[in-house]
Specification:
By secondary structure, the protein is an alpha+beta fold. The protein has 3 domains: about 1-55, no CATH class; about 55-195, no CATH class; about 200-270, Arc Repressor Mutant, subunit A (Orthogonal Bundle). Helices cover about 45% and strands about 25% of the residues. The chain is built from 10 helices and 10 strands. The strands form 2 sheets. It has an 8-stranded antiparallel beta sheet with strand order 6-7-5-4-8-9-3-10. It has a two-stranded antiparallel ribbon with strand order 1-2. Helix 2 packs antiparallel against helix 3 and helix 8 packs across helix 9. It is globular, with a radius of gyration of 23 Å.
Length: about 300
Amino acid sequence: MPIVYNEITYGVLTVFSERPDAFNRRETEILSQLGKSVGYAITAIERQRALEADNTIELEFHASEMQLPVARLADKLKTDVAHERTIRRKEGVVSVYYRIFDPPQVSDVEECCSSLPGSYDILSEQTETCDIEHRVDSWIGSLVSEYGGILRRCYAAENDIEIVIELPQETNTRSIVNRIQEEYPALRLTAKRQHRQTVDTIRHTQDAITDELSERQYEVLQTAYSMGYFEWPRANSGEEVATQLGITQPTVSKHLRLGQEGLFEILFGSTETKEEYWASIVYLVIKRRSGSSGSRQDE
């Protein structure tokens, strides 16, 4: 039975018997499900390795044209478009945020976005950039993450799309490349390189923020930031942020105030709190480098 997850085959589960016809249909189905469960477990482990590993593999893909939303936007608007971030919403919906550089008229952006699958909102429009939120069921970043990878870059210019993904060093890259190219035939692999991560204090800071804030506070702050609420002058008001989130303006103000209080606590909190936070980072770095499993006090 294949050990497989989402069409990536990791190996084969082989069971022997001295008797012919030893396995009936029910046993075969159970073993098949076992193979899928093992495949899922391997994928989960590789995904964790991609997040924690110091040594990883970067794969760079290019295409001259394709139907990815970021490429369609760049092609129709005749400008550069970059993927900024992705947020998973309820009921399987994914919010993908794009930044359009040197945007044309807002009517042209709206017309172009209306041809994309799913739904969209224009979050902010400045002279040099325009930020949009595109809500879809899935996209290429979802495919990459399912196989233990991380999307590091997705950038499109007219007639050129660049995608960079990062994978654990032990990953079967050939299988993943084949799967990506099956889904997106226009992509061609142009580079494969070893990558050594530096100390990722930004990731630890983000972890501290997510620990300090509630899920709703984090969502409100992130949406407000994407919509230019914190810019001067503001690109969008608190009422417009509330409309985007489907909640009332006073509720937005409450979450913004509490969220900012949490951020300031991390930045300006007591000396003991800050020392504890940075000590945790130093401990994780030392432990990762030494491979030690000793207690933090010992380290």
